[in-house]
Amino acid sequence: MNLIVAVDNNWAVGYNGGLLTYLPGDLPYFKEKTMNKVVVMGRKTLESLPKGKPLKGRKNIILTRDKDFTCEDTVVCHSKDEVLDYITRYESDEVFIIGGAEIYNLFLDNCEKAYVTKIYGKLPADKYINNLDELDNWNITWKSEMKEHEGLKFQWTIYENNKLK
Ligand code: FOL
Q1: Site to substitute for ligand 1 among 5, 8, 30, 111, most atoms within 8 A of C-beta
Q2: Is residue 165 predicted with pLDDT exceeding 80?
Q3: Region 6-19 average pLDDT
């Protein structure tokens, strides 16, 4: 499985229950990478999506501790093992962990690749993930050109986990 995320200099991922900022081009990139795949997210990330609805064209798996939680057109799981179990049965070629912070950190060691949009700045934030640059088993294998939007520089990168290779 892989993860896809946008982070700032401090590896912040969220603020006030939502994304750090809006970058044109980044959500279309997210959509292109995840389309027709399985996406795994926490219940709070689901609620942060437009209208609180699952992502179209993808198999949405929601992780929550709430046994009464239901949501149309999704698979609801209550533990990491239940998610892993479901995925092995489902036989999708690719699975993407799409957040939030708690879920990224929970599945980090199970991910082979991380699609990281790096935003070069320090944005207002209250949710963080582990800094992959400080973990020996994660290495950058690809970087896009540098992009810029309203004075904010950003870049798409791919990290690979050599522990799982
Ligand atoms: N990964 C990256 N690189 N950037 C993100 O913004 C991001 N966001 C999440 C997870 N991984 C990410 C979680 N938050 C949508 C909105 C918020 C969100 C994820 C997805 C969303 O509206 N997606 C639609 C529309 C894409 C578009 O505007 O083109 C989708 O169909 O994917």
Answers
A1: 30
A2: no
A3: 97
Query: Alpha-carbon distance 56 to 32, whole Å?
Result: 12
Q: Looking at residues 5-31, what average pLDDT do you find? A: 96
- Determine the distance from the C-alpha atom of residue 23 to the mean position of all C-alpha atoms in its chain, rounded to a whole number: 16
Q: Is the CB of 3 under 6 A from ligand 1?
A: no
Q: Please determine, for residue 92, whether its predicted confidence score (pLDDT) is greater than 90.
A: no
Q: Considering only CA atoms, which of 93, 84, 80 is closest in space to residue 38? A: 93
d(Cα 123, Cα 140) in Å, to the nearest integer? 23
Compute, in angstroms, the gap from residue 145 CA to the centroid of ligand 1.
20
Ligand 1 in reach of 21 Cβ (< 6 A): no
User: Does the domain at residues 2-164 carry the CATH identifier 1.10.150.20?
Assistant: no
Q: Which amino acid appears at position 105 of this protein?
A: N
pLDDT exceeding 90 applies to what percent of the chain? 93
Domain spans in the chain, listed from the N-terminal domain onward: 2-164
The ipTM assigned to this model is 0.98
